[in-house]
UniProtKB/TrEMBL annotation:
<keyword id="KW-0547">Nucleotide-binding</keyword>
<feature type="domain" description="ATP-grasp">
    <location>
        <begin position="117"/>
        <end position="301"/>
    </location>
</feature>
<keyword id="KW-0436">Ligase</keyword>
<dbReference type="InterPro" id="IPR005479">
    <property type="entry name" value="CPAse_ATP-bd"/>
</dbReference>
<dbReference type="Pfam" id="PF02786">
    <property type="entry name" value="CPSase_L_D2"/>
</dbReference>
<dbReference type="InterPro" id="IPR011761">
    <property type="entry name" value="ATP-grasp"/>
</dbReference>
<dbReference type="GO" id="GO:0016874">
    <property type="term" value="F:ligase activity"/>
</dbReference>
<dbReference type="GO" id="GO:0046872">
    <property type="term" value="F:metal ion binding"/>
</dbReference>
<protein>
    <submittedName>
        <fullName>Predicted ATP-dependent carboligase, ATP-grasp superfamily</fullName>
    </submittedName>
</protein>
<keyword id="KW-0067">ATP-binding</keyword>
<dbReference type="GO" id="GO:0005524">
    <property type="term" value="F:ATP binding"/>
</dbReference>
């Protein structure tokens, strides 16, 4: 069994890793990088053992990592894009102290969506038509409308850079909006039946896919995070797992990851991107009986696939917006709520973060009636 050092932010991406390792009995240390712990990660019961460092910026992690490096054989992993890139840039140094995601090598260009699409295509995955666009340049004349725009590098953009455009005019309007992304990827917009978020882990020996989430609802609609879905086995989705494994091996990555696909009515799965870090929806795999995190840290923790069970997941705060906006009835939503066994924003066996959130919210309301410091639809 190996100990794990996590560089994480104050999001459900981090809580999903902390809880999965905790439930697997894996020793862990979290370097929580944030100015304000809006997700109240530090209140998790798995971080009550002197295994938490709260830091204001990524560069502050280096002296802490050097201090922690006295113990040989620890795994180092991340839960947000900027941290994944920060570690990648320091692989040569950090690999002397830890078992890093690339074991001393680098992912490099593969944080770039264009490079990912090129590798995915070479590995046998189906990829939509894509082109890189630099702001201020003329639009390519042969774009297959409708198209979708995304930041070329996730850490350099944000959700507001994602636009679905039916015409060149709509695309020009979207590109004129304020953004910090200098480069975008403009991609053929696939008329999907639903989105798939497949989660896996890459060990030194093998790439294991735990399953995938069929996203029934997103918020914001179409392009937002998963609000409600069903985590099921990979065979249900006809994803080419061998091609995914080739992609991860060629990238040289080790640790938890996720792959996003668009599934069409014709049964085709279009590759969108790989996240070379842990994500919040990965906890659905743990709830379904497949703890990929524990397997990564301890090879003796073999997965018993007989215990796998399809599991509904929900982020009830953002999913409730579908009721508020009139998309579904409260009765419909309550039926979905009652059959859910994995809640992204609350864990019945680790209630500390949720209780801390509501305590904070009530305290702020008492200080100033009608005002919140943390939006209710963001975390809990």
């Amino acid at each position: 069994m190996k100990k794990v050092v996590i560089i994480g932010d104050s999001t459900h991406n981090t809580l999903s890793a902390v809880r999965s390792f905790g439930e697997g009995g894996i020793d862990q240390t979290l370097l929580l990088v944030c100015h304000e712990d809006n997700c109240f990660v530090r209140y998790s019961k798995y971080l009550k053992h002197g295994n938490l460092y709260v830091l204001n910026e990524l560069d502050a992690c280096l002296p802490v990592l050097e201090q922690l490096a006295s113990e040989v054989g620890q795994l180092l992993m991340t839960t947000f894009d900027a941290a994944a890139e920060w570690v990648d840039q320091r692989e040569q140094l950090l690999s002397q102290w830890f078992l890093t995601p690339c074991r001393g090598k680098q992912i490099g260009r593969l944080f770039n969506k264009e490079a990912q699409c090129e590798l995915a295509k070479s590995c046998g995955l189906t990829v939509p038509y894509s082109v890189v666009y630099h702001r201020g340049d003329a639009l390519p004349a042969d774009l297959p409308y409708p198209v979708i725009t995304k930041p070329l590098v996730s850490s350099e953009g944000e959700k507001s850079d994602i636009h679905i455009c039916q015409t060149a005019g709509e695309l020009l309007e979207a590109l004129a909006l304020e953004s910090r992304s200098e480069y975008l990827i403009i991609q053929e917009f696939i008329q999907k039946e639903f989105e798939i978020d497949a989660v896996g882990v890459s060990t030194d020996e093998v790439v294991v896919m735990g399953g995938a989430i069929h996203k029934y609802r997103h918020w914001p609609r179409l392009v937002g995070a998963g609000a409600f879905g069903l985590f099921d086995c990979m065979e249900r989705f006809n994803v080419d797992t061998e091609a995914v494994s080739r992609f991860i091996r060629k990238a040289g990555y080790h640790g938890p990851f996720s792959v996003e696909f668009l599934h069409t009515k014709e049964g085709k799965n279009y590759f969108m991107e790989v996240n070379f870090r842990n994500e919040g929806l990965a906890y659905a795999s743990t709830c379904a009986g497949v703890n990929l995190h524990a397997l990564y840290a301890d090879s003796t923790k073999r997965i018993n696939w007989d215990k796998f069970r399809p599991t509904y997941m929900m982020n009830y705060s953002i999913d409730l917006l579908y009721v508020k906006e009139g998309d579904i009835t409260l009765g419909h939503w309550l039926k979905d709520f009652l059959k859910t066994r994995c809640f992204i924003n609350v864990c019945l066996t680790d209630l500390g973060p949720t209780l801390a959130y509501y305590k904070h919210k009530i305290s702020k309301k008492n200080e100033s009636i009608g005002m919140y410091s943390v939006p209710a639809d963001r975390w809990y």
